[in-house]
Amino acid sequence: MIPSRLHAALDAVSAALLVLGPASMKRNAGLRAPLTALGLGVAAYSLATSYRGRSPGRPIRMDQHRLLDAAQGAACLALARDVDDQTVRTMLRGYGAFSLAVAAASSPPGPTGIAVPAEAWATDLGDDLACLRCGIVNVAFIGAAGAGDRDWYLVDAGVPGSAAAILQAARRRYGASRPAAILLTHGHFDHVGALHHLAETWDAPIYAHPAEHPFLTGRQAYPPAAPEVGGGMMAELSWLFPRHPIDVSRHLRALPEDGRIPDLEDWRWIHTPGHTPGHVSFWNAGTRALLAGDAVITTRQESLRGALMPQGHLQGPPAYFTPDWTAADLSVRRLADLEPRIMVTGHGPALQGDALSERLHALATTFRQRALPNDSRYLRQPS
Ligand SMILES: [Zn+2]
Ligand SMILES: [Zn+2]
Questions:
Q1: Which CATH number does the domain housing residue 337 bear?
Q2: Which of 27, 73, 76, 317 places its Cα 20 to 30 Å from the Cα of 170?
Q3: Are residues 78 and 100 both part of a single domain?
Q4: Which GO terms describe its molecular function (predicted)?
Q5: Could you tell me the pTM of the whole model?
């Protein structure tokens, strides 16, 4: 984490080096124009930046500034490829890499959350539950291994491109049997990537909360991401993530109003909005197993490292994609009150043990301090 004052100083030095450096180079005349232009560019966008978010006259926010930093760093790396002079090439590469590192390290801290040591990660989810990590997200299987045709359920459908991995895991656990249905916690792109393909392949119904249907029938896009929440590259780049609706109307059904899931005795769905309006979690009171979706997660999803290499970090929903924090707060309380013994979340490792319930209560009672980001357009104006 680089303080904004140091960041501003580094920008000034970078601009000066880029403008003055080429003037002292005797060879590599071809580099002078692009480097001078880059230097002037850095100076211009730095002068227009509100470094501490308190200069209303300056139009560039810090999250946008960092993307510009990353872009000029990448431009230097690209320029370096065509340079024959070894010293100049090394300097350009070093500067490019340094700029990318500064861009990444200047992200404001994301939600504080609660660290969860690896001893508390679940190793055994019980007979009727399994979890599969698909890149940055988890999917779950409800139903004992070897369950018959239409006798098990898939929860969520991974990032785009994960159909093969999900089908393979399903075949390993259930042979040629097809699921009774696909249950959705919500319709974000990283939870519905393989949905259409899987529903077609298995000819299976998809159950989701009615409030989530507009995003699953092509009618409505999710609200824009809030990259200003900070916490790392995932947040930074979140404005690029797809938020347009998919259309799986042909297979889509509403979850029954009474909390039941068709033909599935032991499980109930629980409305846990905030992250999305129709977000639900799934709960088995007998085994005290909870599938929380993104209502609470167990890794720092705002950072690229946290997303790719789950760390054990209990927090509220992924901050960049959460537009209603009041509802999200109430949802975490609701889940904490269940006092689960096993919990699988949309992102991060599954957790188990007595301390799980204590940690969930701690998150719920200190939601404002531990789950809220320092900044988000939706803290002022929920959507
Ligand atoms: Zn989500
Ligand atoms: Zn998610």
A1: 3.60.15.10
A2: 317
A3: yes
A4: hydrolase activity
A5: 0.82
* Mean confidence (pLDDT) of the chain: 93
Tally of structural domains, the chain = 2
Are 129 and 184 in a shared domain? yes
Cα 188 to middle of ligand 1, angstroms: 5
Q: What is the pLDDT of residue 1?
A: 66
Nearest to 222 by CA among 239, 206, 245: 245
Q: Which domain holds residue 67?
A: 4-105
Ranges of H-type helices in the chain? 4-20, 29-47, 62-80, 86-105, 163-174, 195-202, 233-236, 304-308, 325-338, 354-365, 367-370, 377-380
Please tell me the distance between residue 66's alpha carbon and the centre of ligand 2 in angstroms. 24
What's the rounded Cα separation, in Å, for the pair 326 and 317?
Answer: 12
Ligand 2 centroid from CA 285, angstroms: 24
Out of 105, 130, 163, a domain closes at 105
| Ligand 1 center to 98 CA (angstroms) | 32
The CA 261 to ligand 1 mean position distance, Å, reads: 21
Which residues have CB under 8 Å from 373's CB, separation 6+?
A: 110, 111, 226, 228, 229, 230, 231, 302, 319, 379
Number of H helices, E strands in the chain: 12, 14
Model confidence at 345: pLDDT above 70: yes
